Amino acid sequence: PVNDQLKNVAYSQTTKVELEEMFQKPEPLEIQQIPEKEYDALSDVIPPEADLTTLSGSQKTAVPGDTVVIRVKATDVGTGVDHVNFNIEGENGGSSSKSIYTTDEEGYYNFSFTVVELTQSGLWKPIWIVPYDNAGNKTYYFASSGVDLSAGDFEIINPNADITPPIADLTTLS
To answer: Residue 174, class by beta-carbon neighbours within 10 Å (0-12 exposed, 13-18 middle, 19+ buried)?
Structure first.
């Protein structure tokens, strides 16, 4: 019904009659004013921002058993930040991505990556960071587009990493 379609519409400058006309429904609408703490997702068109001056990594080198934390602050002037997506990749293979929905006590979104026994050695880098606000707006920060995310780079030193590719025995094909 129309009321279900309108439950996320904030009552602002639009009158009840205008809303009824917009949805072309003859039935009366029940519109309640949304408390100030709620947000108007339809009017928030400004995407959130990551403050890349706060981007940092907890360490520059890591070995199996270490947990590397890459952190950044993000802000949004409209509905507030919902979450921040992080993606990292290793130069010799491997990647990890996560959505972080909470901040620490200092306001940072913390992406944690634990180096396991077979994690590939080499340089690991943030490939992208994408903050989302509660209205669904987002801003992409891609290293491939020239955005400097190198403050989150780290080197994995892992002599146990499996770097030998499998070998196919083609003599057994029939």
So the answer is: exposed
What is the three-class DSSP state of 66? coil
Output the pLDDT for position 12.
41
Q: Please tell me the pTM assigned to this model.
A: 0.71
Low-confidence ranges of the chain (pLDDT < 50): 1-14, 25, 29, 34-37
Q: What is the pLDDT of residue 16?
A: 54
Q: In what order do the strands lie in the sheet with 49-57?
A: 49-57, 67-75, 109-114
Around 64, how many Cα atoms within 13 Å sit in the side-chain half-sphere? 11
Is residue 144 helix, strand or coil?
helix
Amino acid symbol at 146: G
C-alpha dihedral, 148 to 70 to 76 to 142, nearest 10°: 30
